[in-house]
Amino acid sequence: MIANFRKSLRSWATIGLLLFSLIAIVVTGFGTGGFGGLGSLTKGDGTAAGDTLATVEGRTVTASEVTDQVNRAFVRARQQQPTLDMAAFLAQGVYDQVLTQVIVADALQAFADHQGLVISQTMVDREIANLPAFRNLTGQFDQSVYRQQLQAMNMTEAKLREDIAQSLVQRQLLGPIALGGRVPEGVAREYANLLLERRTGTIAVVPTEMMAAGINPTEAEIAAFYRANRVAFTIPERRVIKYAVIGMEQVAQTPPATDAEIAAVYRNSPLSYGARETRTIQSIVLPSQQAADAFAARVRGGTSFVAAAQAAGFAAADVTFANQNRTQFAGVTNAQIAAAAFAAAEGAVVGPTRSELGYHVVRVDHVTAIAARPIETVRGEIAAAIDQRKRADALTALVTQAEEQLSSGASFEEVARAHNLTIVTTPPVTAAGLPVGTTTPWTAPADLAPLLRGAFDIDAEDPEPAIETIAANQRFAMLGIDRVVPAAPAPLAEIAQQVRTAFIQQRARQTARALADRIVARINAGTPAAQALAEAQPRIQNGRHVDLRRVDISRQGQQVPPPLIALFSIPQGRARVMPAENNAGWFIVVHEQRTPGDASGTPALIQTTRTQFNSSVNEELAQQFARAIELRSDIVRNEDAIRGARQQMTGNATPPAS
Asked: Which of 66, 170, 244, 455 is 20–30 Å from 5 (CA)?
């Protein structure tokens, strides 16, 4: 519920500016950029010529940079919605949002430079090594994979390092700011009162189906409806997809693990087989030395770490790191803090210790000692792992060889024959894998679903085959397309019954809305809801009495019916019409009585509300800090150039009129 209350306060955050997973430019899909990750804050290539859209503290923002970011955002959006086209994407105001992101990113970078914030080469190296996109099938950083990904992105190593460094600077700037917000208890109490507010009312529905009887359109009406709604009857673009699976079944038998190989793995895997310990550690990062000293003093004085953290606005899960080895804990803090935590005794409090993120206070909650496992007891386990690694290496080699052959100009069919791969060809299918427009029964193979996105990303004008992943490290496919069937409306003769049904549905829905409006008008004029529903023509008999508190609907999570949400936004004594799902009809929501809530007797609810608000306030503080930097920066926007660049991109994305 707190998120719903504060949604209107956070519209500036909708551009996805301030997240702490700043390395998401690659983690969430290398090269996709776009919203929701800090990749959307970093620039694209930045070197191509283009009109200057803005200057930020002397830094130039060009049309090519923004276009590059928009294209990356579009690729990422297509991963979630394969049928999305650029015209519809831009219609959401994406171009201006991305431009704002680039401007704010430059303002943050200029501010950081002025403050002397520096990112070391070692920090950048560590981030690159930890990015999943640069790992091979065994999960290890691979220099060749790294180079291939950079080449695929048409990005230089220097540019990638610049982007990562910029993201790390943003983390240093915004991380400490986002940890300092606290909401007064009085504010939390008022929102807790809202949670306990009770409302009673009536909810009814005027179903579309009730109004459909007697609607009998003529052929002329059906034809006119079809012409006016051609887009609704358009069959989306379809593609004939061909693919050939490359899996473990194509890998030759590998030699069994030798005693020397088993011994080497055992010797080099002390974390798996040697004597070791794990620790459950409680850790918090605070923005100042004073706050960290006070926190450590409270814990050393007997207050539990979790209770002290909750008082500071953190949940137990935020500060508890269970069963960590030293390397794991160093990954979420740093080597110095991890060393101190693993040198301390159980129950000890370490710190405050300063890092680039703030001041850390750590407590060793529990130490678990694990005895060594003799080699004879794990020989079979190691041998199986070695066999799996060998087969994975062989599969990687096979996939790499196929990729090299395709890059060298070999055709899809030639590569398939060379490796004895079976080619599967689909009928024309949509991006969802449906064979729309065909009368021949066909069921999509299980391997096709993971390939659909890649198949529809292939350039129809230059359809080069590619290697795609079906199951990570286990199953791949050589993927291509045979032909593309452009989107077009289905002929009326083939879908006449479908069009007739749609006509009736639309007319019935319009009639149902008119009836719902008349009922609501009577209720708002003073007629009791039961009477207005009973006297309607036709009579509405499905009215249901509701009696709820806000906290009751908040417990339903994301599955709260919209009419219940509307009940808490309508003034007492008023009614409102709202649509039912799937055009099924129209809800009539009537708010009859409101009883204010009183949270004074539920201090736990006030504290929970305060904790939830603290999390939101922390994020908003970081957002406002970045906004303040933007406002104080010397930013000059070239509105004519911005308008021209936006129009050019929108014009290029607009599909031709049919």
From this structure: 170
